[in-house]
Write a structure and sequence with these properties.
Elements lengths: L1 E14 L2 E6 L2 E7 L6 H13 L3 E2 L5 E3 L1 H4 L2 E6 L21 H18 L3 E3 L6 E16 L1
Parallel strand pairs: 3-6, 6-7
Antiparallel strand pairs: 1-2, 1-3, 1-8, 4-5
Length: 145
């Protein structure tokens, strides 16, 4: 399971012109599920997302987590992050989970996040989404569990 996290000042996801998820300051995370992933991978990713120290402390060092700053978490499924881009000029998606598994594990991750954190939003799995964000820093990390 992969998560591309971006520290944001604000972010929202629209589907067919309607906002389906939004946060103020916090983390926007693009999530890719791979065929070997399990709920344990989702649990590990969520643990890292909530505890990863990417927010500045009083000295300007990245020492504070999403929980510490009471920020929002916006999860967006993005199977293209699992693409194999090593060969040719067209990505291969053979390394991405089948849609059924992707939907199941993304839903699991979302439910766990909502149970453990007060401010969680999401995109809509499988939809054509428009993601709007103001990247803070910019600060962007790829997490792979």
């Amino acid at each position: 399971m992969r998560g591309l996290l971006q520290r944001v000042r604000g972010a929202r996801v629209e589907v067919a012109g309607e906002v389906v998820g939004a946060i103020d300051h916090g983390l926007l995370v693009l999530v890719a599920v791979e065929p070997q992933d399990t709920p344990a991978h989702a649990d590990k990713l969520l643990h890292k997302l909530l505890g990863y120290r990417v927010f500045s402390d009083a000295d300007g060092k990245m020492n504070r987590s999403l929980v510490d700053v009471q920020g929002g978490l916006l999860l967006v499924s993005q199977f293209t992050l699992a693409a194999d881009t090593r060969n040719g000029m067209r990505p291969s998606f053979s390394t991405a989970a089948p849609p059924e598994l992707g939907a199941q594990l993304f839903s699991y991750l979302l439910a766990q996040a909502q149970a453990k954190h007060p401010q969680v939003g999401s995109g809509q799995f499988g939809a054509d989404m428009q993601v709007h964000l103001v990247n803070d820093g910019p600060v962007t990390f790829m997490l792979q569990v």
